[in-house]
Amino acid sequence: MRRALAMIALASIASSGCGDWRDHVQPNLAVKEPAQAPLEKPAFSARGATLTPRARYTTKAWVAATDRDIDDPYEDVIPLDVSLIWGPLGNRDILRDMSFHLARRYVSVRWGREVPLNEKVVMTHLANTHLIPSTPELAAYLEHVKAGDLLFLEGLLVDVALAGTFPLKTSLFRDDIGNGACEILYVEKAEITRPGRGPATARP
Description:
The chain has helices spanning about 90-95, 120-125, 135-140; strands at about 1-10, 35-40, 45, 50-65, 80-85, 100-105, 105-110, 125-135, 150-160, 185-195. By secondary structure, it is mainly beta. The protein has one domain (about 1-195). It has a 5-stranded mixed beta barrel with strand order 4-5-8-10-9. It is globular. Residues about 5-20 have low confidence and may be disordered.
């Protein structure tokens, strides 16, 4: 379970032109840092696993990549991963020289020398987030999310225990990378918007 590994490209990575999700990103719509507050709440069962809440979490960010093709012991508990970006990364001119790849619970990001951001800024405004929908309706709704969407999420950062396999611990920081750096979010509210492209599917 990894947030990201930065890999500096030797040359800029060109966007794919027409239909590129980066063209839908608009400034000033996802500028705030995710909001996190500690909480004390007992562990509870959901989707066949035991979840231990660590913090309440809210974020509004652009979706840079999604992964639903998951094949690991947690695929029924955590059916969707999204890579989220915000702040200085929410800029289509910067994103045109960047690429994101998300698979097997791991996101990688590449960028060219033209990107006017250092590695620390990039890595602290990118979150690989494992989503646990709290209801079947939310699970169905989140099936519609795709790269280029503006996604609002609210819920609980949780540690996850599943019988017969290793436990997972959520990250509680935005500046960590490598194993254990992913946020695991029990989603209680979600909203997908597509600025300039009409409404997304109605919220549950």
